[in-house]
Amino acid sequence: MAPKLYCTKESGNCYKVRLLASFLDLQLDQVEVDFFNIQHRSPEFLAINPRGELPTLVDEGKVFNDSSVILVYLAGTNPDPSSKTVPSSYWSSDVVEQASIVDWLAFTASWIQFGLSKARAIVSFNWPADASEETLTEAKNRGMKSLEILEKRLEKEQWLALARPTVADVSVFVYVALAHMGDISLDPYPAVKAWIERIQGLPRFIPLDGLDKAMHQR
C-alpha cells in the first residue's frame, strides 16, 4: 500500500514532499485537505494528526508530521529509481553528511519559513488576514537576508549540502523559487537563479502554481 500524504495544493511544504516523491519515482496516495476552510483542524483530521499540521504522511501505521521529517523518512527508506540501494542519494548513511543536510533543513524551518514563506502567505493569500505592514516588512527583510546567505553558498557550490542534490535542496527550493509571490525579486541573486534552474532540470521535476513565473525569470 502506498504511503498516504495529507496535503493541500497551495502549500509549498506539501509540494516539496510531492517533489521528492517524484524524484524518487515513488507513488503516494494523496488526500487533499481544505486548509483555508480549516479542515486540518477538524476532529477527523486531528484523530490522524493531533497537531493539525500539513503535510502529514501515514505509512504502515507510522505518522510523520513535518515536511522535513517526511523528506528524511522518504529519502532514507527508498532507493533512487533503477536502484535497490537504500538510502537514496537524496539522503546519506554518513553522519557528517547527514549533519550537513540537517543544517539546511533547520535553515528552512527558521530563515525560510519566517521570511520568504511568510511574505508569500501575506502577499498572495492574505494570510493571516490581520498581518500588519510591519510584519510583512520584517518577513521580506528576513527573506532577502536568506537569499544573501544562499547566494554566497551557491557562488561556490552547485548544491547546498553535498556535491549532489539532497533533501536540503528540495526543502529550501520551493519558497525561494516562489519569492516573487511575496514581492521579493530574485534578480540580485544570479547564483540562486542558476540553482533553481538546476533543480528544475532534474529528472521527474514537477511544477507548482507560481513556479512558471520563476522559470520565466531566468
Automatic annotation (TrEMBL):
> Pfam families of this UniProt entry?
GST_C, GST_N_3
A GO molecular function for this record?
Answer: glutathione transferase activity
Source organism's superkingdom? Eukaryota
Kindly give the SUPFAM superfamilies that the UniProt entry links to this protein: GST C-terminal domain-like (SSF47616), Thioredoxin-like (SSF52833)
Q: Where is the GST N-terminal domain?
A: 1-82
- Please describe the quaternary structure of this protein: Homodimer.
**What's the protein called, per UniProt?**
Glutathione S-transferase
Q: Which organism is it from?
A: Cladophialophora psammophila CBS 110553
